[in-house]
Every structure is written in structure tokens, then in C-alpha cells.
Design goal:
alpha+beta, 5-stranded antiparallel β-sheet, rod-shaped
Length: 551
């Protein structure tokens, strides 16, 4: 047994050694399997993260060949991108700059940033990229590109630049002062109008440039404006004696910072006008009183002149009415002398002479009473018969009309019992003025031979016509002396306007007539040419049922 004892010991050692190796090998394998499993899990987790990332993540080699990309780009799928050169998709102007960045990553092992412009099928997209090296065994094997699309931002910035250029062009063309100021009071932009008004900016602060101060203005609202408040105010500049309306507001710059935009509009002329208006308003009441008094005095003078003219018309009318009875009295007086010479002066003759004289004197006295009542002003409005009133006027003017060989035709076409509401005697004065103007026009036309003569017939004719509507009575007075020239048709009612000459007319008759009809009686008086002759038309209200009874 002793001879075999070493052999048994060797077997036992071998068995123990083999058992330990198998045990360690099994443990190692188990660890290896666990590591592989963990590696797979990490790889899947990495892939999941990369694939779900919002940015584009790709791996390229030093030649720019895409070895991996997490998603499609610019309408191209992943399998159309992997194995292709990244430069194939870049805009030609962008390739050189991209190559320098990528070469720098591989040569210097540095990370870098770049804006890449990808152009596929005419569609241009912009990306902000981060490019970093991937090292294996301390050697750069490839590079990773993390790209965020910024196309919308680039387009917005370009549009903003375009709009800013438009705004700058507008401000450059403005007559108003316009400038932009930063929070530190530095001026970042001024338009030509600013230079014209305040001179070159020369890196001045706004308080130095505008207000000639060494420090910020105590009234400056920068703090409120940069918080978003808009401020508008007026500012007077003593140096130039100008006043400006200033508009301040905050504007946002491309980089997100805030600046202040200032626009200054010159309102000097407006302020001067306002001051003049204020001064005028301060004296307006006195000026109005003086003007009213001046007009009242002028109107009083016109009325006095009108009254004098009317008195002259009255005296002329009385003279025509008295001519015949005065002639009769003259013949009576002569007959007394003849009777005395021929011894025929008896009591009966004396009684006859006295009766005839008293008759003529009574007629003349009655004429005075008629004219005195006629020219007596009406104090109150009344309802009166238009036709009757016009007939009274024609009676008073009958002697003058007859002596001047003029025919008057009066057509009364009024329907119903219509009366006028107003001042009767003032209305008579208006009718007299118009008829007298017509008579003067006829006599002037006769002197010029425009009426014609036929066996002593002179052809002078005045036509008066009365018509009415529902609540208006129309009185038209026309003559056959010809039309009023168009150039003076609108002037005939102006004060002191006359075509008769100073010895024949004052030019206030028609003016006063228009005032009486339109201001005192609330009617209308106007003239026009019809059938180559002039016609004056009066429109007056019909007296209503509440008016006083017809006089």
C-alpha cells in the first residue's frame, strides 16, 4: 500500500486542481455573459436615446462619409444618407467652411461649432451643428455631428433684416427726427433729419447730443420705457425756438435686447397758431361786440338811407298824384281873375269855384293820408291779402305808371282763400322797390330804342302773377326790358350795387327788400332770367289757422 501511496496523492491533487479550474472558469464565463448582456443593454439604451433625440445625430469619417445617422433629413431616408458624403448635401458656398471645421476636429481633436446649409432638390435648410471627435485607442476614429435645425430662425432673421431695412429707409426719408438709444444712453442710429437738426452724433450719449448735458436728464423716462411703457410729450428747445412732439417707445432687437425708439415731430407752427388762437379767443368777445356794433351801425345807416329813398319815392308818387289836382286848382284861380275882368264874378260863380277847389283839396289831403298810412312801419306780423295789398301798391303808383306810358298786367291765380303771414307795409315797400326797378329798366330800354315805337305805343309792360302751393305763395314780377346780364345776376341784391348811376339810384332798395323778405318775413327773394327777360320771385308762407285774423 505504501508503494502506491504517492500515486493516490497525485490523483487527489489533480482532481482538486481540475475542480478549482472548472469552478473559476464557470464564474468567469458567468461574468462574461453578464458583461455582454450589460453591454447590449447599454448599446440599446444609447441607440434608443440617440434615435429619440430631437436633433439630428450622425457619425462621419475623416472624409465626411456618413457612417450613421439617427433619422432622415430633408426628405431623404436614412438608407439614402448612410455611405454618402456629407458634402454632397451642402450648398457650394458652405462646403469649404465645413471642411475646415471637420478637418480641425480630426487633426487637433477639438470640438467646434458651425452653421451648415443643406441644399436638396432646391430646398435649403439651415442647421446649427456641434462637431466633436470620437476616439478609439487614443486615436480619433470618427466624428459625431449634433445638428439642430434653425431654418425658421434664419428665415425670421432675414425677414427681420428686410423689415429693418424698410424701417431704416422710411426713417431716413422722414422729415421728423428719429433715433434709437440703448439702456446706457448710447445712440445706435440717427436719421438724416436728426443730423440736420442737431448735427453729427460723434459717439455722444443721447443727453449730450439732444440736450447738451453732461449727465442723464432728470426728467428722462428710460426706466419706464424699457419696461414697455410708451411715452409722448412736448419739448421746447430754447436754442432754436422750436417745439417738438416727442414719441418714445421700446423696440426689440434681433438679439433679444431692448432699445428705445424716439421720434420728434416739429410742431412749432402749430404751437404758434395755438397761441395766436388763444390770444384771439381772449379778445374774441370784444371783437364780436365791436363787429356786431359796426354791422348794426351799417345796417342802421342802410335803413336810414332806405327810409330816405322810400321818402323820395313817396314824394315822387305824391307829386304825380297831385299834378292833376294842382293843375285844376290853377285853372280855377285863373277863372276867378277872368270873371273879375269880365264882370262875371257873382255869388253863384264864387260858390262854384269854392266847391271845385275844396273837392281838389280834399282829394290831395286824402292822398297824403293814403301815403302816410302806406309808409307807416308794421310793428307786428299779421295775415293780409296779397292780391289786395298789391292792388293798393298799384293804385299809389298809378299816376307814375300812367305818366311813363307803362302797362301793368296783374294775374291773380291764387287757389282758395290764401293770405300771407308777415308785415304788410314792409311787403308793400318791397313790391314798390321791384316795380320801380322794372319801370326804370323799361325807361332805360326805351331811351336806347330797345322797346320800339308804333304809332306812339312804347311797349313798356310789367307783369305781376300770384300763384300758390300747399303752404307757399309765389309772387313773380317781370318786365319786358330784357334780361339781367349773367355777370351781375348774383350781385343785384348786394348793398350799394346799382347800374343806374349815382344820380338815379342808391343800390340799397333790392338789398333792403331781400332783408325784409328773408330775415323779417322768413321767406325768399331771388331773381332769374326767363324768356330773355328778368323776373323777381317772392316766396312767402301762407298764414295758418292759428294766425291772427286777416286785416
Amino acid at each position: 500500500m505504501l508503494e502506491n501511496e504517492p500515486t493516490d496523492k497525485n490523483n487527489i491533487f489533480n482532481n482538486i486542481t481540475k475542480s478549482n479550474f472548472n469552478s473559476k472558469s464557470s464564474l468567469l464565463q458567468s461574468k462574461l455573459n453578464g458583461a455582454e448582456s450589460e453591454l447590449v443593454e447599454v448599446k440599446e439604451r444609447w441607440r434608443s436615446i440617440v434615435e429619440s433625440a430631437p436633433d439630428f445625430i450622425s457619425i462621419i469619417d475623416e472624409n465626411g462619409i456618413i457612417k450613421y445617422i439617427n433619422r432622415g433629413i430633408a426628405n431623404l431616408k436614412v438608407n439614402n444618407l448612410v455611405g454618402k458624403s456629407i458634402y454632397d448635401f451642402m450648398d457650394h458656398e458652405n462646403i469649404d467652411a465645413a471642411k475646415k471645421v471637420i478637418e480641425g476636429v480630426f487633426l487637433r481633436e477639438n470640438s467646434d461649432n458651425a452653421e451648415l446649409r443643406i441644399s436638396i432638390n432646391g430646398s435649403v435648410r439651415w442647421y446649427q451643428t456641434y462637431i466633436g471627435p470620437i476616439k478609439i485607442n487614443n486615436k480619433v476614429d470618427s466624428a459625431t455631428i449634433n445638428a439642430t435645425e434653425i431654418t425658421d430662425r434664419i428665415v425670421a432673421e432675414k425677414n427681420l433684416i428686410v423689415e429693418q431695412d424698410k424701417l431704416k429707409n422710411i426713417m431716413d426719408a422722414m422729415d421728423d427726427v428719429a433715433y434709437i438709444v440703448g439702456k446706457d444712453y448710447s445712440i445706435t442710429y440717427i436719421n438724416p433729419a436728426s443730423v440736420k437738426n442737431f448735427g453729427p452724433v460723434d459717439n455722444s450719449k443721447c443727453y449730450e447730443y439732444i440736450h447738451n448735458r453732461d449727465n442723464p436728464c432728470p426728467w428722462c423716462e428710460n426706466e419706464e420705457i424699457f419696461k414697455g411703457k410708451t411715452v409722448q410729450k412736448e419739448w421746447y428747445r430754447p436754442k432754436t425756438n422750436k417745439t417738438y412732439d416727442i414719441f418714445n417707445t421700446a423696440i426689440k432687437n434681433m438679439d433679444g435686447s431692448i432699445s428705445k425708439f424716439v421720434k420728434m415731430h416739429d410742431i412749432t407752427q402749430r404751437k404758434r397758431a395755438e397761441r395766436k388762437l388763444f390770444a384771439l379767443n381772449c379778445t374774441l368777445e370784444d371783437r364780436v361786440k365791436k363787429e356786431v356794433e359796426r354791422r348794426r351801425l351799417k345796417e342802421h345807416i342802410l335803413i336810414q338811407q332806405s327810409r330816405l329813398a322810400s321818402m323820395g319815392e313817396m314824394i315822387g308818387a305824391i307829386a304825380h298824384q297831385w299834378r292833376q289836382p294842382l293843375n285844376a286848382l290853377g285853372l280855377i284861380i285863373q277863372s276867378i281873375k277872368d270873371a273879375y275882368l269880365y264882370k262875371e264874378l257873382t255869388k253863384g260863380f264864387i260858390d262854384q269855384v269854392v266847391d271845385k277847389s275844396l273837392f281838389q283839396i280834399d282829394y290831395m289831403s286824402k292822398t297824403i293820408d293814403d301815403f302816410r298810412n302806406f309808409f307807416k312801419p308794421s310793428k307786428e306780423k299779421n295775415a293780409f291779402d296779397a292780391a289786395k295789398t298789391i292792388n293798393e301798391v298799384l293804385y299809389l303808383l298809378s299816376a307814375q305808371i300812367k305818366d311813363n306810358y307803362i302797362t301793368v298786367r296783374f294775374d291773380n291765380d291764387l287757389k282758395g282763400d290764401k293770405s300771407i303771414w308777415g308785415y304788410e307795409n314792409e311787403f308793400k315797400q318791397v313790391v314798390i322797390n321791384i316795380i320801380k326797378n322794372a319801370m326804370d329798366a323799361i325807361m332805360e330800354a326805351r331811351e336806347k330804342g330797345n322797346l320800339g315805337y308804333d304809332a306812339g305805343y312804347n311797349g313798356g309792360e310789367i307783369t305781376i302773377n300770384l300763384t300758390n302751393g300747399d303752404d307757399i305763395i309765389f309772387i313773380s314780377i317781370s318786365d319786358n326790358a330784357g334780361a339781367i346780364p349773367d355777370e351781375i345776376l348774383d350781385k343785384v341784391f348786394e348793398p350799394y350795387f346799382t347800374t343806374k348811376g349815382p344820380s338815379k339810384g342808391t343800390g340799397i332798395g333790392l338789398y333792403m327788400s331781400k332783408m325784409i323778405i328773408e330775415r323779417n318775413m322768413e321767406g325768399k327773394l331771388y331773381t332769374k332770367n326767363r324768356d330773355d327777360n328778368s323776373v323777381f320771385i317772392i316766396e312767402l308762407k301762407v298764414a295758418d289757422q292759428e294766425s291772427p285774423p286777416l286785416i
